[in-house]
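Hi R.,

As promised, here are both runs. First protein below:
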Amino acid sequence: MKILAMIRRILMTLAVAVSPAYAETLAVVNGTVIDGTGSAPLKKGVVLIDNGRIRAVGSKREIAIPGGAELIDAKGKYVIPGLMDANLHLSVNVDTELLIKYEGRYHEAIQESAQITLKGGLTTVFDTWGPRAPLVKARDEINSGEVIGSRIFLAGNIIGFDGPYSPDFLGVFSPNTPSGIPKPYITDIFANRINELFVQGVGRELMWMGPDAVAEKVTEYATKEVDFLKYGASGHADMFFISFSPRVQKAIVDAGHKSGKTVQAHTTSIESFYMVVEAGADIITHCDDSGPNTPLPKSYIKKMVEQGVACSVTASTDARMAALEEASHPLVPRKTVSRENIRAMIEAGATLLLATDSGVKSPAILVEYAHLMINVDPEGEIRDAPHFNALVGFEDLGMAPMEILKSATSNIAKAYKVDDIVGTLEPGKMADMVILDKNPLKSARNYRTIHKVIKEGNVVDIDSLRVMIESGV
């Protein structure tokens, strides 16, 4: 297992290192450097970049800047690591119109989404559900420098879930969600073709199998160019159902680890949360969601912390909750419990990961079903960067400013075991960073004040990022 994990990390390092046209030497000077490790901010700091990687971080007195280096003056500004999203879906446009219109071009839509996330300072994103082959193509073209965009790590299918045209996604996104369309409007051939693009042999049929058979399927799937694994411990459309027994969940996690992958689980209930911790998963996705009535027991949260399991959550802001309550929105009970769980996790010292569970939505869906959009915030929805609101949500729930930064940088990198290449501003790591006009440790709203985005030592021209296919931006 250790040898496989080591090989995987080496290959991953080589993959993300492939990118053309690095600035030979770049120095970001005079800014306040907040490196993401939890160390105190360094005023008038220098970040020296060579061939896409960080060579040195320190004060002007400590670092000699080579002659001929390109300088970026960050005086009065704040330099932080590139931001990350631990749980998003770059191909969330799964309504029937777009699935038909862009069949064969889904990778382009994914790349467009990755350009939109990059504009918001997300230099790395973790796609936790989507069509595997288009995601792989989009990831590889971005890593090679053929296309610009956020660095993508992907899971492909959620193990145990079927595709968009299945009960797992019935009416989840909108009334126009594929499985919400009356059957006469599509053929079985089309529905099966799209489902298989997502399912890849690890769908609902696994729930008929015993631990050994499931482990064999998971091991086979782990070879299909995915970066990590995710399984459904509870249902998606029917969130209160347990998907796999404790024995099978342990088999999934063990098979993933033996294949050198981190393993995370989708949970939406108290018992699915407990079973995932018992199974030894690395990350719990939606770990704040325990239903509309009962918060997680403090003992369960303590067990998660003691076992070092990371927790991926989407924190709602006070303003959004007030708006939901005023509208008597059906999400109010679940979101109220969610916020109570997040507060308890903050107090317990849990490793929290910023996540949006979002993606670019079709303009038609945004117009026709605006009342169903769950990322709306009365402060002003930023469809290309919902993580800004999630960061404010952490602040509203009492998370310390430095922990908020870590939730979107080093915590995510460590949880996914890629902290040797990204996540902090330290020598040897990829030169991913965001320069802000205002101090993020003073207010989480200051993450919106992006001055520059730098990925792998290259300054991103965020204003010229093209839009290739329809988006909601």
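And here is the second one, sequence first, then its structure tokens:
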Amino acid sequence: MIDLSWMRAALIGLTCLVACTDDGMGADEAADGDGPCVPNQSEACACPGGGNGAQVCEQDGSGFGPCACDTGDGDTTGDGDTTGDGGWDGESVPSWSNHIVPLLYDSCGAGINGCHSREAYAAAVASDCRGWLSLEDQPLGAEFYAGADIGQPTGCPDMPLHDRLVSLAPWQCAADSRYVTAGSTEASYMWQKIQGQNLCEVSPGLLSKSMPPPDSGIVLTETEKLMIEAWIVAGSPNDN
């Protein structure tokens, strides 16, 4: 899991709903400022010319790298749509490919390094193939996409985005949890992150952030929230 016209004008798609995350959805639980952080973790940052960008934690965890700011028009889907809801009529079951995937790209920075792109994802057998969530709509997981092990196998299979959402547990939550549980918003961590409730612990006493992060300046519109809710309640269908 936006004022997408503003976001695109701000030159970058950012952390969304769901999680810059894997948060539980994303790599959004970064430390503030220049303090220690988790390698490859990312968070929103302010761009010099205004708007938001993303910064990624250094490999040694010493702090965040420079703020990456796009200079394009922000239309990460390439279809020219700037509404964020893909023209959803508000009544029919939202389409995975026509509504949900574009929203994830536009609101979560799925195609932007440092947000929810593949660079943030590092699946590993030792962690039940969980990792910082990538919302990129491509089969991912079989290799590392950043860091010293880039290109090396993880021991996990490549999984399409829909499979990752409905099959994998968020890295900081219980092993039997899921980002999306078909038919149940209460059991879907993606929805809980959007609502800012029932958040899992990143570390003892420190809860994961809601999505979009409160300090990101990005807000999901009610229509976008309803669209995600309707898709989950309808059974999270995949029309690919």
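A quick note on the second one: Helices lie at 4-9, 96-108, 161-167, 189-195, 222-233. Let me know what you think.

Best,
J.
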